[in-house]
Amino acid sequence: MDAILSARNIRKCYGSFVALKDISFDLPRGERHALIGPNGAGKSTFIACVAGQLPGVEGELLFKGHNITSLTPASLAKKGIGRTFQISRAFLGMTVMENIMAAVVISTGRWASLSRGLYRENLDKAFHLLETVALVERAADRVGDLSLGDRKRLEFGMALANDPDLLLLDEPTAGMSIKERHYLMEMVATRMEETNKTLLFVEHDIDVVMKIAQRVTVMARGAVLAAGTPGEIAANEEVQAIYLGGGH
Ligand SMILES: Nc1ncnc2c1ncn2[C@@H]1O[C@H](COP(=O)(O)OP(=O)(O)OP(=O)(O)O)[C@@H](O)[C@H]1O
Ligand SMILES: [Mg+2]
């Protein structure tokens, strides 16, 4: 298997609390993979470990065969790991186009040498990203005036500015209506498939998981409980007992 990401015996403690016990996990290149499990299972902790956001991660993380354990988010972004760009409050007063342009400029790192030609190139890229996330018509609107669904699609578009090979999404559909959830995640899945990129996402909506994921890993109390196709996971009695019966 050509794994783009491999986790070997990942352990992460917060003080004396062991949040991740011994996570080993292989993610094949090009796969859309869902991470599910009850509250407190360690899903966000695992995503944050891969994204380089946490200190003191034990074990080994390999990305494209290279050890990335303890690299910073900035160097991981350069290597091709992306995650949603949470739009800060400071950016809410800016327009949709200004936000996407900011992401494009950051991804190219060439703001200082901005020339007319480069500006045009960045603008074309930004426009193309807005097309990808169906926000061209909102380009001139303030981000603060967007619906949650539109904002989440903008965040997705901003994450794509870097053209990441692996995209990490932690509960991208939280707070959205059922219709918006499916719209966003179908858009994400289509984009990943068309560009042959890999997706690792945390999702509580089991219908979205069943539709979007090709494989699913179930976590509970800091450990991997089961992994398989959505069908296998849905039929797994242990999963049903611990996860599906667990109040979600
Ligand atoms: N910064 C922290 N300090 C101490 N404990 C933490 C910290 N972050 C998370 N935890 C604990 O680690 C455990 C795993 O948390 P995590 O956020 O990874 O779970 P999760 O699976 O993402 O849950 P949810 O579905 O609620 O988002 C929980 O018991 C949580 O309380
Ligand atoms: Mg979480």
Largest sheet: 6 strands, mixed
CATH top level of the largest domain is Alpha Beta
Quote the average pLDDT. Answer: 92
Low-confidence residue ranges: none
Q: Estimate nothing, just give the exact number of structural domains.
A: 2
| Annotated CATH homologous superfamily of the largest domain | P-loop containing nucleotide triphosphate hydrolases
**Quaternary:** single chain
CATH topology of the largest domain: Rossmann fold
Number of helices: 9
Give me the CATH architecture of the largest domain, please: 3-Layer(aba) Sandwich
How would you describe what is shown here?
- This protein has 248 residues and is α/β, with parallel strands linked by helices.
- The protein folds into 2 domains: 1-80 and 165-248, Rossmann fold; 86-163, no CATH class.
- Helices cover 39% and strands 25% of the residues.
- It is globular.
- The model has no long low-confidence stretch (mean pLDDT 92).
- Bound molecules: adenosine-5'-triphosphate (ATP) and magnesium ion (MG).
- Residues 14, 17, 19, 37, 39-45 line the site of adenosine-5'-triphosphate (ATP).
Q: How is this fold's topology laid out?
A:
Elements: E1 3-14, E2 17-28, E3 32-36, H1 43-50, E4 58-63, E5 66-67, H2 73-79, E6 81-83, H3 96-108, H4 116-132, H5 148-160, E7 166-170, H6 178-195, E8 198-202, H7 206-212, E9 215-220, E10 223-228, H8 230-235, H9 237-244
Parallel strand pairs: 3-8, 3-9, 6-7, 7-8
Antiparallel strand pairs: 1-2, 1-4, 4-5, 9-10
Helix pairs in contact: 3-4, 3-5, 5-6
The protein binds adenosine-5'-triphosphate and magnesium ion.
